[in-house]
C-alpha cells in the first residue's frame, strides 16, 4: 500500500524548500563513494560491475539497517526519516526554478545570463547558443529530468519504498558520473549505463504518457501521443526521447538537432514539427505541463491506493 504520509510530506518539503544546498545530501555521499570506487576498481577486470554492485549494496544496506533501527525506537521517528529521504530524492522545485531563471533572462533580453543559467540544466556547451537554441535545450531538459528527478523516483518508491527509491537514485548517479560513451568510460561505465536504461524503461514511457495528458485538449493530447509513439524511439537514448517527443508534439515545436559537447558536435534526431517558434513563453508552458503531469500522476496513484 502506498505510504500517503511519506508521499505528501516529501512533496510538501520539496515545494517549500527546494534543493537543500546547505545540508548534507545523500546524492553527494553516493557520489563520493562512486569517486572512491572508481579509483579503486577502474583498472580491474569487471571493475564497472564491482562498482555497481558495491554501490547498491552500500545504499541498500545502510537504508535497510537505518529504517529497522529507527522503527525499534519509534514508528514516528522512522516515518520522519523516510519523509526526509523522499524529499531528498526529488528535484521538482529546483528543476522548475532553474528553468524559470533561463526564461526570465531571455525575456529580459540578457542572452549571456541565459546561457549561464542554462549550464545548471544541461551538459552541452552553452557559450554560443542563440535564444531559440537555449529554449530548445531548456525544454529538452525539463522533459528528461521530469522523469529522472520526479516520476522515476516516485515509481520506485511505490514499488519498494524509500529503499527502492534510493537504489534507483544510486544507479542514476552512477550513470551521470561514469555512464559516458567515451574512451575513458565506455567499458567501465557500461554496466551502470545499461542498468540505468533498464530501470528507466517503464518510468520514461510513463512520463511521456503523463505529459501527453497534461495538454488537456483532445487535439493536443493526440498530437503529443502520436509524436511520442512514432518519434520517441528515434533518439539515441533508449528512454530520453519519449518524454522529449511527447513534449514536442504537445507544444507544437521541434526539439533535437545539433548539440556541442566539449567542442564536438553531436546530432540528435528532430522530434516534433516546428509549428511554433521557440520563444521564452514555450519554457513557461513546458513548466506548466510538468506540474500538471505530476498532479495527474499523484491523483492516479491516490485512486489506485484507495481502490486497493
Quick overview:
Helix content is 72%, strand content 5%.
Structure commentary:
There is one protein chain. The protein is mainly α and 308 residues long. Helix content is 72%, strand content 5%. The chain has one domain (92-307). The protein has helices spanning 4-17, 26-41, 47-73, 75-89, 92-107, 111-118, 131-178, 190-213, 218-231, 241-251, 280-307; strands at 255-261, 264-271. α8 packs parallel to α10. It starts with a helix and ends with a helix. The mean pLDDT is 94.
Search tags:
mainly alpha; two-stranded antiparallel sheet; about 70% helix; about 300 residues; 2 strands; single chain; 11 helices; globular
**What is the element string, with H for helices and E for strands?**
HHHHHHHHHHEEH
Question: What is the rounded distance between the termini?
Answer: 8 Å
Calculate the mean pLDDT score and round it.
94
What is the overall shape?
A: globular
Tally of structural domains: 1
**What integer value in Å does the Rg equal?**
20 Å
Low-confidence runs: none
Instruction: Assess the beta-strand content as a share of residues.
Output: under 5%
Q: Could you say which structural class the secondary elements and strand pairing correspond to?
A: mainly alpha
Task: Describe the main β-sheet briefly.
Answer: 2 strands, antiparallel
Separate helix tally? 11
Kindly state the percentage of residues in helix: over 70%
- The number of distinct β-strands equals 2
Strand order of the largest sheet: 1-2
Amino acid at each position: 500500500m502506498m505510504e500517503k504520509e511519506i508521499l505528501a510530506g516529501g512533496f510538501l518539503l520539496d515545494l517549500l524548500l527546494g534543493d537543500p544546498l546547505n545540508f548534507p545530501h545523500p546524492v553527494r555521499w553516493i557520489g563520493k563513494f562512486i569517486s572512491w570506487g572508481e579509483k579503486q576498481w577502474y583498472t580491474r577486470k569487471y571493475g564497472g560491475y564491482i562498482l555497481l554492485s558495491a554501490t547498491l549494496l552500500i545504499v541498500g544496506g545502510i537504508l535497510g539497517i537505518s529504517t529497522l533501527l529507527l522503527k525499534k525506537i519509534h514508528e514516528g521517528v522512522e516515518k520522519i526519516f523516510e519523509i526526509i529521504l523522499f524529499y531528498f530524492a526529488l528535484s521538482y522545485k529546483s528543476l522548475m526554478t532553474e528553468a524559470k531563471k533561463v526564461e526570465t533572462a531571455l525575456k529580459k533580453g540578457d542572452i549571456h545570463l541565459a546561457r549561464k543559467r542554462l549550464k545548471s540544466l544541461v551538459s552541452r556547451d552553452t557559450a554560443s547558443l542563440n535564444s531559440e537554441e537555449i529554449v530548445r535545450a531548456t525544454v529538452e531538459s525539463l522533459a528528461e529530468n521530469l522523469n529522472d528527478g520526479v516520476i522515476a523516483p516516485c515509481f520506485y518508491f511505490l514499488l519498494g519504498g524509500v529503499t527502492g527509491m534510493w537504489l534507483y537514485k544510486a544507479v542514476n548517479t552512477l550513470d551521470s558520473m561514469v555512464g559516458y560513451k567515451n574512451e575513458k568510460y565506455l567499458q567501465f561505465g557500461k554496466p551502470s549505463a545499461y542498468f540505468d536504461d533498464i530501470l528507466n524503461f517503464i518510468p520514461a514511457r510513463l512520463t511521456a504518457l503523463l505529459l501527453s495528458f497534461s495538454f488537456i485538449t483532445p487535439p493536443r493530447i493526440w498530437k503529443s501521443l502520436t509524436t511520442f509513439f512514432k518519434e520517441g524511439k528515434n533518439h539515441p537514448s533508449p528512454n530520453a526521447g519519449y518524454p522529449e517527443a511527447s513534449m514536442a508534439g504537445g507544444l507544437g515545436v521541434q526539439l533535437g538537432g545539433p548539440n556541442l559537447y566539449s567542442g564536438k558536435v553531436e546530432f540528435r534526431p528532430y522530434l516534433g514539427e516546428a509549428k511554433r517558434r521557440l520563444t521564452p513563453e514555450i519554457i513557461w508552458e513546458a513548466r506548466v505541463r510538468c506540474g500538471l503531469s505530476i498532479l495527474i500522476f499523484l491523483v492516479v496513484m491516490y485512486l489506485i491506493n484507495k481502490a486497493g
